[in-house]
Amino acid sequence: MKGKIVLITGATSGIGKETARGLAQLGATVVITARDVQRGEQTKQELVQSTKNNNIDVLFCDLSSFTSIRDCCREFLKRYTALHVLINNAGIVEYHRRESKDGIENTFAVNYLAPFLMTNLLLDMLKKSAPARIINLTSGLHSGTIHFDDLEFNHSFSGMKVYGHSKLAVILFTRLLAERLKGTGITVNCTNPGMSATNLSRDAGWFSAKFFKLIAKEASIGAQTPIYLASSSEVETISGEYFEKKVVKKINQETYDMDAAKKLWDVSNKYVGL
Length: 274
Ligand SMILES: NC(=O)c1ccc[n+]([C@@H]2O[C@H](COP(=O)([O-])OP(=O)(O)OC[C@H]3O[C@@H](n4cnc5c(N)ncnc54)[C@H](OP(=O)(O)O)[C@@H]3O)[C@@H](O)[C@H]2O)c1
Known about the structure:
Elements: E1 5-8, H1 14-25, E2 29-34, H2 37-51, E3 56-60, H3 66-79, E4 85-88, H4 106-129, E5 132-137, H5 159-180, E6 186-191, E7 196-197, H6 206-215, E8 217-218, H7 219-222, H8 224-231, E9 242-244, E10 247-248, H9 258-272
Parallel strand pairs: 1-2, 1-4, 2-3, 4-5, 5-6, 6-9, 7-8
Antiparallel strand pairs: 9-10
The chain binds NADP nicotinamide-adenine-dinucleotide phosphate (NAP).
């Protein structure tokens, strides 16, 4: 990965941090985003020390704010002249309905609209840098169909349902983007990292969060497929797929619904103001 520039969202903990570490170990220039400046700096120092790679940078980005995402992308484009790998890693599970800085249900905003906006803002740079790759973190808990009549779960909110819905949106975005990027030299895939002992369940209460960490695998194991998708020559021409444990997996029919994907894309454009 020497000479490659990688941008990873939400790399201050869990799978994102381990993905950053793995790619830095492979020699990439790794730019991480953090919603807390201090945590971002600490993570950068930790990664530099553990990988002996000085080419690690940090950008501030609160993914629950479209303004912050736009500022972050602007800053990235100011600092760098290429982007070879974009990893939309950051994600949340929230058990109570909250709203983003833009007044949108927060899980939908952070898990789906944020990567949608960030990817679109960085697409020209990815095209110029091709061959390039986009990797979106989804989950095995993706479920159902897109709730076009209530995308923000104003009615019948449930943390896991809303999480699964946001991750289905990520898969549909991945498949349609892959179709639209054919011939550009950019591939886009998504991956379920598997149950990993991270801070993802921080909102679930002390007992559930502890239990989750006990039964899950280490975050470094969850990072293996994102690292593979970012770096392996085996996947350089594969696009629009869902990966688990480094292998393409055929999943439920709803995730191949291109009409829903197109409809969602149009609604998303309106949400993010593109
Ligand atoms: N862990 C699992 O079992 C599992 C399973 C399937 C899929 N996934 C997916 O894997 C990805 C990584 O999750 P993880 O398990 O590593 O969770 P994690 O340890 O909670 O890490 C999430 C990262 O996202 C950042 N983040 C959260 N909200 C943000 C916001 N508003 N703005 C900017 N950054 C924000 C966090 O920052 P802070 O450090 O500031 O909190 C952190 O760096 C997620 O997309 C998740 O859905 C995880």
